Amino acid sequence: MNEVGQDSKPNPQLDSQQASKGVNKFDEGAPAAPDTDDGEPYDSRGLAENIVRDVRDVATLGRALDDATRAFGLQVNQQFNISGGLVAPGDVPQERLSEATLTGARDTFVRPGGFALAWDRMLDQDLILLRGRPGFGRECAATHLLDAFCEARVCRLTGGRPADLRADDLTPGYGYIWTGLTADGVGTRQLERVRDLVHERACRMVLIWPRDAVWEHAMAGHYCDLTEFPPFEEILSRHLRHGIGSELEGQAEDLLNDARVVAASARISAADGAAALGRALREVVLGRSEVEEALETAAASTRSAADWFIDLENRTDRVFALALATLNGLPYPVVVSGARTLDERIQRSEDRENRSCIRPFDRPARQLLRAVDAVRRPGTRETAYGVVPTEELVSRRDDYSRRMLSVLWEDYPYLQDIYLEWLDELVKGADPYVRERAAFAAGTFADKDFEYVCRRLLLNWSASDRWTERRAVGTALRVPVLGRRLHQNVWDLLEHWSSPGDTTGDQRRRITAAAALGGPVGVTDVPRALDVIGRKLLERRPGDYVERLWNAVAYTVAELFGDGSTDAGEAVLRHMADWAAWPEAGQRDAAVLALIALFSKPPEEHRAPSVLRAVAAGEDRLVLVADLWRVALNHPTMAGTSVQAFRTLSNNVPDSGEGLDELVWLVGRVPRTRRELNTLRYEVRHWGDPDGPAPAVVKRIAARLDECEVSV
Question: Which CATH architecture has domain 12-55+489-707?
């Protein structure tokens, strides 16, 4: 049965036994897995039809994954696809600034004194050592500089030591802000090494000079001083007006003249304080907050998450704040429902006799949201029946999800198991957006204690017969694979799970590995993911599980293909061509299934399908796609489904016509025999409404086929 869209078909012979075989270091502590039965026939045609039907569900999962990724402040798949994957992580923690962050920085930046010199220095130097008093806005100035010079490709390095920086930590063409250094780590030798690495890798860096560090004369040409605070009133005004629209300008001006706001403005002593006040007041203009509430929010925004959480006096507020850490940005009723179930779990642990209870009338929404510093805002959700308006609940605290989860794990150890049980409950729910958030939260904890969380949650999910839980494993592994400490462990785990085994648990973990090697983990290193797939997941073995496995492989390839026009897209096509050329039927079937998934993959709004963008990227990719489709067109059982997938591809050409020329080019390169040509002509003649004119796309395809000449 299909891997996405519904749970896999149960096999009584597989699920009735309880024996487990092949326990090893990764499987210890996992649930027992029954032996398998290889009696079920392999149905490649039915499998291909499932892929055509259900590949849109994969697109929904991709949106849910990107939504959760943004909520946790990590790179979305498109960024990996464009940049060619994840640069091997180093000892210095690194994160890429999101497009939303950079857009906000452009719209709200105010120049501090000395910024013009920094700009001139960046014209001549790859490395700038930026000095200035705290509150001058050094990080904002560095972000603005690198955003302009590096075309919105900006990463932040946090902490570490210059001696730990490696060449592989830096990507050519990127800009890096390095904060959190200590005074004893910035000697002349270390700085010269950083300068040489930056120059060697053809990138740029702004290093925020640590306080009390000794000025190094040998690096005099790289220093730049910010000399004055930026105008606080202008910072406040820009953050207040950012994105509110011209119709609310009058309200914004009136608010700035409010006596309470004037008094709060007079107490501002740093650029980040002015920015925080402006953001809080913008919520007032948008009707989502009151003035007093906004002033309190701004005052609290610079406090640490731990101190802020301790000061929440009401237990309902604390539970809600913990639930919001995972569900931040989801629809308001979803967050409330999740908070209620978490509160019930916590109360059961506090009172085994169940004398505690939730008191729904004690905490009205306005008081609750004010306490946890969250707001409701309009949002949308893409569904099978269109884009539906929603009301999202969002924390106003920066990087709230990761910081709050860190507070829970490090400061409240007795809550760890309760929270993990709650995440397990969320992953087993029906909402893909909730599942992906819960999996990311589990991954955040796994980044702190991988072995414990792996045994507590991930091993159970990986051996589940529910595809939702297997998918959650890959999403959870997204967090630790982005760091250096556990990067190799994650890949070793997926390699191990990819190996064939004799138990049901082994086979389910192969499916789990296949799913993880797509959008969740594999997209961070596409060549490595394709190598694992080619070596370990294409073996054809009889039985029901091979259908589920190859479903997962086909969807994984579609996710790895990404935009199609990038290097990752070309790597996917070349591996598929290699699989199609293998003498074994299993590898050929996998290549055809993957091509059907690519043809059926829904495009981004108003853009050409990714396969056609790949065709437009060069003659070599056009040839690869045409050759693969020819293999599919001659497949003994999946030829008809490949034509159906091509019709889906044709229907996905947008009204703007983008991709239509590439589609016609592709059609013209496929037929080499009279049988192939006649098959395509016959199928195309039956497209469209027989009582009306054929669509423009069909006319172009039919005309191109009429021009084709074959010799055999």
Answer: Alpha Horseshoe (1.25)
